[in-house]
Design brief:
2 copies of one chain form a homodimer. By secondary structure, chain A is α+β, with helices and mostly antiparallel strands. Chain A is built from 12 helices and 18 strands. In chain A, helix 6 crosses helix 7. The interface between A and B is large, with 36 and 36 residues.
Amino acid sequence: MTGGVIGIVGGGQLGRMLTLAAKPLGFDVIVIDPVANSPAAQVGAEQIQADLYDASALSKLAEKADVITVEIEHLDAAALQNVAKIGTSVQPAPKTIQMIQDKLKQKQYFKNIDVPTAPFMEITDEASAGQALKQFGKMVIKTRRGGYDGRGNVVVNNTKQLNPALEQFAGQKLYAEKFVPFTKELAAVVARSLDGKIALYPIVETMHKRNICTEVRAPAAITPLAHKRAVALASKVAQNLEGAGVFAIEMFLADDNKVLLNEVAPRVHNSGHYTLDGSKTSQFEQHIRAITGLPLGSTEPTRESAVMVNILGERNGPTEIRGLKDALAIPEVSVHLYGKSPTKIDRKMGHITATGKDTQTARKRAQRARRRISV
Amino acid sequence: MTGGVIGIVGGGQLGRMLTLAAKPLGFDVIVIDPVANSPAAQVGAEQIQADLYDASALSKLAEKADVITVEIEHLDAAALQNVAKIGTSVQPAPKTIQMIQDKLKQKQYFKNIDVPTAPFMEITDEASAGQALKQFGKMVIKTRRGGYDGRGNVVVNNTKQLNPALEQFAGQKLYAEKFVPFTKELAAVVARSLDGKIALYPIVETMHKRNICTEVRAPAAITPLAHKRAVALASKVAQNLEGAGVFAIEMFLADDNKVLLNEVAPRVHNSGHYTLDGSKTSQFEQHIRAITGLPLGSTEPTRESAVMVNILGERNGPTEIRGLKDALAIPEVSVHLYGKSPTKIDRKMGHITATGKDTQTARKRAQRARRRISV
């Protein structure tokens, strides 16, 4: 088509849903993905089959695309920066991605602008790790880079647990964070347009199992004070990021309605999948609008409540999805499958969104639908 | 994916929007279309590049597909019937498509089950045409087959206009229909599931220029009596069609709240495009659900009013769409482009849907958005 070409680093489910949103707006899409017939390619994205860190693939993408964006933050940010220097628009800004992909730098950046976070410190050896443990008590050791779906996090309660934790991450740069006894995990998707306008989606509650997001409830059931603080935090973070696009801001809700920044993702995010069915503009269309200079769409909900449940693989083997018919028989239930094969235990194979007049209704529908599907 | 393979005869904008709906439900799509890189192929449908009347292409499609459907009724219904006999499910039933594609047979079929229509009769020569004119007064001569976007219709007011009309359609089978001085044109999309359940969308008003649909207003602004009659007519028609899928029922509203059947399309339809943004389930997802044995979705509107305006080509040449940014700056406006090139005068290049608290609001938004786009 003639609307221009969008390049995406990564062609998984996020690239797929971005492509599905981009096509009706007249854009062509090209993705880089190592696996042939990626989820994005299945819905009409051209695919450059290459590793996400392949700089020559990125150059090829830059030659063809009018704007490059990402569906994952674990990539070669320096190469992205080079591409941007040569003249292809990269959104969000490579330096934002670079800052975010190092979680320690991210934390420092936001702490410096007075965004509340849990206390943290860099650890480089046993001594500094011991120092952190002394200061924080219960703490979490995290890798500075590459953590995803909870890989790269380990809780340390005492000195006995310290060495095994350090050994587990041998060779990786680390930091420690005081364990926050949070009552809920919150998130908000926020979009920034090329001209700096900001559109915030509702604050949602995210649930995790085995460190993987399993459920998202929109809106979050929190006090007005916690809500106000979460909105203020998310808005402040959004205002201090460079470049256009959708960002996901993950937060902890602690005692006394305290809201702390957990981390930021410079991309569309699992916590925003519910927007496909529960919002006037999906996060995917919003991201496409943001990075191509189109005006941001409305972030208003279309229904009182929406609950998203991930369809995680339950076994290893060729994908075979059963129970779709029974799931769709439930009112206000939508199913979005990602076209992945094989299925693997805990692999994100799709998601379900249910809407309803309140969260309990939506949740029951989503959970019931999830139980009816096997994958 | 593993949900099965849907074959579609035709890969234009309807095939494209069907594909966009099918993919997230886990289906693969294959289309037959004569033009490479069809609108459907651009969103990930595999394409068999062949004429729609190519029987060998249809056989190839039948080998690969679990169910075959159509985005156009002008095709080889006998070949479809053969395919169905060999064992591939064809939805809707080929005999339904065959009946519908001959407009005279269609009229006769519905007249026989007491669906109100304008008076009509077959004409085979000058004498029978003269007879029809005598009986009907002002009348419309129509080709029995192949009429589309008003091609194949001519109004005849008097005997002087009779011969030129007949000459225009020389060699084609014809029928004549009494001219209905209608006050509005109405339409309704209706879905039938494999097990015969029926889901009716709201009655809408359709506007035409140069015999091409330009605007659809949902819901139609008609009296309760006219509404009741339109619903009864559409339901009766739907109950008397064979096979699963979405059908569009076009009607005339005449004096005294009389509602007459105009014609039926055995497929998703321009009059239902508004459902992408104005209904809980789009006609495209509904069709996919219907033909694959999934339960039908809700046909409830998501907003008081929705107005769809077609984006028709304004010139001949390579496609270049301008003004998208300005159009999307208007609240509650969605734009759906079809990926067609070149643009041609009156070619359907895309559509706009605007929603709002009433039809006037939605209409103003849609019209304003349309004026801002050039194609």
